[in-house]
Specification:
With about 300 residues, the protein is α/β, with parallel strands linked by helices. It contains 9 helices and 9 strands. The strands form 2 sheets. It has a 6-stranded mixed sheet with strand order 2-3-1-4-5-6, with helices on both faces. Strand 5, helix 4 and strand 6 form a beta-alpha-beta unit.
C-alpha cells in the first residue's frame, strides 16, 4: 500500500473562516475562532492521519498590510506558507472578488503545486451568487480547482479532504501517527486565554495582549496553570482586570472550561497581568513570543 503525506497550507484574507476550516478537517479545536480580524497570529499545524496518508495542515494569519513589527512577522508566516506547501487552499468568502495582495496573487497564479480556491460561507447566499462566484474565480485563477464549502456547517468538507489527499505526493509520515499538532500544551493555554480576551474586550485591547504560561504542572487528575497576560500600557492593565477583578475572573473561568474539555481533566488556572511596554514593536520580545526566528 502506498502512503501519501504532505503540507497543506490554508491562506486568505482575515475572517474568511480559515481556522474554522482547519478545525473541521482536524476534528479538534486547535485554532481559536472569533469574529475579530487577526485572531490567528502564528502558523498552527494540525495533523490529520489516515491509514495510508498524513495531511499536515497549516492555518495562517489573514493577509493584511502590516502596521507594526508583530504584523510584519505574521505576514512572514503567510509568505513561508507559500514556500513549503505541497498544496495550497486559498479561502475566500462568497461575494469576495479581490486578492488584497498582488504578490500573493502572483504566487497563486504561478504556483507549482495544486491550488484549491475554497468559496466559504455558501450557506449565506443564493445559488445564483454561488454560480457567479465559481465563474469569477475560475476565470481569475484558471490553474486552480474551485470548491464551494461551508466550513461551519461541514458542507463539502469530506469531498474537499478526499480531493486534497489525492494530490499529495507519495511519502512516509512526517510526524508520529498519533500526533494532532506540533504545538506544545502551553501554546493552547495561551491561545484559549487570548480567545476570551478577543471576545470580551473592545478596541485595541485584544491586539495589545500577549499571553505567557509560566507554569504548567500536570498531575494524574488535575493541571495547574499560572499564566501572565502582557499588555503595553498601565491603563490597559486596569481594563483587563476590571472592577474588583470581575473581568479577568470571567476570562479565567471561560478559559478553564475550554481547557478542561481540551485536556480531558480538571484545570486550575491563575491569571496575572503585567505591563510589557511596546512589546509588539520590539524584536527581542517578538522572538521571545515565537513570532520571529531566534537565529
Amino acid at each position: 500500500m502506498t502512503h501519501k503525506a504532505g503540507f497543506v497550507n490554508i491562506v486568505g484574507n482575515p475572517n474568511v473562516g480559515k481556522s474554522t476550516l482547519m478545525n473541521a478537517l482536524v476534528g479538534e479545536r486547535l485554532s481559536i475562532i472569533t469574529s475579530k480580524a487577526q485572531t490567528t497570529r502564528h502558523r498552527i499545524l494540525g495533523i490529520v492521519n489516515g491509514e495510508d496518508f498524513q495531511m499536515v495542515l497549516s492555518d495562517t494569519p489573514g493577509i493584511i498590510k502590516p502596521a507594526y513589527k508583530l504584523q510584519e512577522s505574521m505576514m512572514e508566516f503567510v509568505k513561508n506558507a507559500f514556500e513549503d506547501a505541497d498544496c495550497i487552499l486559498y479561502m475566500v468568502e462568497l461575494g469576495e472578488k479581490e486578492l488584497k495582495n498582488e504578490a500573493f496573487e502572483k504566487r497563486l497564479t504561478f504556483a507549482e503545486v495544486p491550488v484549491f480556491v475554497l468559496i466559504n460561507k455558501i450557506d449565506k447566499g443564493t445559488p445564483e451568487q454561488l454560480e457567479e462566484a465559481v465563474a469569477h474565480w475560475k476565470n481569475r485563477l484558471p490553474n486552480a480547482e474551485v470548491f464551494a464549502i461551508s466550513a461551519l456547517e461541514n458542507f463539502g468538507i469530506p469531498q474537499l479532504m478526499n480531493r486534497v489527499i489525492e494530490t499529495l505526493p507519495e511519502s512516509p509520515a512526517f510526524y508520529p501517527k498519533d500526533a494532532l499538532t506540533d504545538k506544545p500544551e502551553r501554546f493552547f493555554v495561551n491561545e484559549s486565554i487570548r480567545e476570551k480576551i478577543l471576545l470580551h474586550y473592545k478596541k485595541e485591547i485584544p491586539y495589545s495582549v500577549e499571553i505567557e504560561t509560566e507554569e504548567f504542572l500536570e498531575d494524574e487528575d488535575i493541571i495547574r496553570i499560572r499564566a501572565v497576560i502582557m499588555v503595553e500600557r498601565d491603563t490597559q492593565k486596569g481594563i483587563i482586570i476590571g472592577h474588583k477583578g470581575s473581568a479577568i475572573k470571567r476570562v479565567g473561568m471561560e478559559a478553564r472550561k475550554d481547557l478542561e474539555k481540551f485536556f480531558g481533566k480538571q484545570v486550575h488556572i491563575e491569571l496575572f497581568v503585567k505591563v510589557n511596554k511596546n512589546w509588539r514593536s520590539d524584536d527581542r520580545q517578538l522572538r521571545r513570543f515565537g513570532y520571529q526566528n531566534k537565529n
